[in-house]
Amino acid sequence: MSNLHTANDFAKWMDPKKKEYYIDNIILYGSVALRGEGKDIDIMLVHHNTVFEEIQRMVFERRFKDAYDVFLEINKLLQKNNYAPILDLLEIDSCNRALRDDLLHIRFVDVRVFSDKQFYDIEYSRNITKTFFEDVLKYAWTWNPKTEKFDIPMRDVYKISPVK
Questions:
Q1: How far apart are CA 99 and CA 46, in angstroms?
Q2: Tens-place pLDDT, residues 100-134
Q3: How many domains does one find in the chain?
Q4: According to the model, what pLDDT value does residue 114 have?
Q5: Is the dihedral of CA 58, 9, 128, 134 positive or negative?
Q6: pLDDT the model gives residue 146
Q7: How far apart are the C-alpha atoms of 56 and 38, rounded to whole Å?
């Protein structure tokens, strides 16, 4: 099974839950977005949810050993904050395998990064590659629920530049 197929499985699972978890968009970036295949799957969830912001902070502090560990912590924090659990993702074989093999990496980006300098600066400081967003915009794809594919260029949805 291809990593693109796994990314699609994840997006099909996540899309109906977007409102519940305050997620604006599901974005595929990295090698799978660029070439349709790659060694891992990079998904960005653009959100307005403080739980996800806390998870992202913890990820950048390197508090987790792998993608599965991150997933379990996401589930725990969501439930602690009165959200529904997300363990049903593990029922999708491709996603379960990708999480356990440390191949499915989920990055959480607060939607305010695109309009608020404070959030942009925080996100900018988290990146080893200072051109991360500019590079991602070149080849990242936003999930399209109508076609059930990642076929909307991220650059058509979001603009990344140092906001004032």
A1: 20
A2: 999 999 999 999 988 888 888 888 887 767 777 77
A3: 1
A4: 85
A5: negative
A6: 97
A7: 23
Radius of gyration in angstroms for the set of CA atoms belonging to the chain, rounded to a whole number:
15
The verdict on residue 83 lying in a domain is yes
Q: What is the DSSP letter of 104?
A: E
User: What's the whole-model pTM score?
Assistant: 0.91
**Residue with structure tokens 């999708």?**
92
**In 10 A of CB 56, how many CB atoms?**
21
Q: Side chain identity at 13, as an amino acid letter?
A: W
Residue 49 CA to residue 127 CA, distance in Å, equals: 20
Contact 144, 28 (CB under 8 A): no
Domain coverage including residue 102: 3-156
Write phi, then psi, for 144 (nearest 5 degrees): -115, 105
Find the angle CA(42)-CA(5)-CA(110) to the nearest 5 degrees: 30
User: What is the per-residue pLDDT for 97?
Assistant: 97
